[in-house]
Amino acid sequence: MFTGIIKKTSNLKNTKSKNDSFEIEILNNLGKVKLGESISINGVCSTVKKIGKDIAFEYMPETLKLSNIGLLKKGEKVNIEQSMRLNDRLDGHIVLGHIDGKGKILKITKEGNSRVFEIKIPDKKFAKFLVYKGSVAMEGISLTVAKVFKDFFVVKVIPYTFENTNLNSKKVGDLINLEFDILAKYANKK
């Protein structure tokens, strides 16, 4: 489980397609990491496969279908977050790292000192999980929903988050990982 508060980014050192899986390596700027540890990479709960100067992860077909992990290229910046410990603060919201789908960036504008992102909802069935001032994880970042429309939503990103995550390298048309709020999912369960 994660909080969606991104403390670090890393550059992708290598990617490799292998049968029905996909492997990535990132520079280890986290310090002590254990084999089998869960680390969020762009919001995807990822299991450490190899450690050292670099950290390696491998992804299965389901993850590749629902996320943008398989689209990553060498040199790209990724958001990383180590899993939450029981004594950690929950500064963001509960983020599981289970991506619901890829949203398309429709528009990025400036509003004062913030950036406004319009994101296409990947499937209309997810719209019920979006509420004004509710939470959504975008590329693993805990964000507040500013507006909800029929097939897209809006988030406003403060300068610190924009400058210290991979959102500053995103452009219109890019696909981003979305995880809708788990509390909203349970509240809507029938």
Order of helices and strands: EEEEEHEEEEEEHEH
Poorly predicted regions:
none
CATH topology of the largest domain: Elongation Factor Tu (Ef-tu), domain 3
Strand order of the largest sheet: 1-2-5-4-3-6
| Proportion in helices | under 10%
Which class do the helix and strand fractions yield?
mainly beta
Give the second-level CATH assignment, the architecture of the largest domain.
Beta Barrel
Strand content: 35-45%
Describe the global form.
globular
C-alpha end-to-end distance? 24 Å
The major β-sheet equals:
6 strands, antiparallel, barrel
For the record, the CATH class of the largest domain is Mainly Beta
Number of helices: 3
Number of domains: 2
Number of strands: 12
Any idea what the radius of gyration is?
A: 16 Å
Q: Mean pLDDT across all residues, rounded? A: 94
Secondary structure blueprint with pairings:
Blueprint: E1 8-18, E2 21-27, E3 38-41, E4 44-50, E5 54-59, H1 61-66, E6 77-82, E7 101-111, E8 114-120, E9 135-138, E10 141-148, E11 152-157, H2 159-163, E12 175-180, H3 182-188
Antiparallel strand pairs: 1-2, 1-6, 2-5, 3-4, 3-6, 4-5, 7-8, 7-12, 8-11, 9-10, 9-12, 10-11
